[in-house]
Amino acid sequence: MSEHTLLVVDDELANLELILMLVDELKIPVKCVTARNGVEAIAATRELSPTLVLMDLMMPVLDGWEATRRLKADPATAAIPIVAVTAQAMVGDRERALAAGCDDYLTKPFELSALVAKLRERLG
């Protein structure tokens, strides 16, 4: 088992599978955990203290915007880096994501090289 945990949060199964497949193919030594909405993301983050969270912003139940705000407001989870991975790519969305507490931002569909760079930067 690796020392790093990656939490991938997305309501679209295809997006989760793509990221998990990429991590596996790159042989990044990380335990991958998934969540399908913001409520699950908060619970998993509090329980596992992942090394990195990849957070979709538009999800049912509780969106990634609010989940990120709550995680960053909680001293127990505030230091965990959150990268927004989202189709929200309008002017100002990056700034809104960073203002909500995201540490970084990738738009979907993402360039594989950009995602790989973020994963390697944060997970070694």
Task: State the main characteristics.
124 residues; Rossmann fold; alpha/beta; 5 helices
Mean pLDDT: 91
Cα radius of gyration in angstroms: 13 Å
Strand neighbour order, sheet with most strands: 2-1-3-4-5
Order of helices and strands: EHEHEHEHEH
Low-pLDDT sequence parts: none
Into how many domains do the coordinates divide? 1
Shape: globular
Fold-level CATH name: Rossmann fold
Individual helix count: 5
CATH class category name = Alpha Beta
- Fraction of helical residues: 40-55%
CATH level-4 homologous superfamily: Response regulator
Topology, number of strands: 5
| Portion in beta strands | 15-25%
Which architecture per CATH?
3-Layer(aba) Sandwich
Q: What kind of sheet is the major sheet?
A: 5 strands, parallel
The structural class is alpha/beta
| End-to-end gap | 15 Å
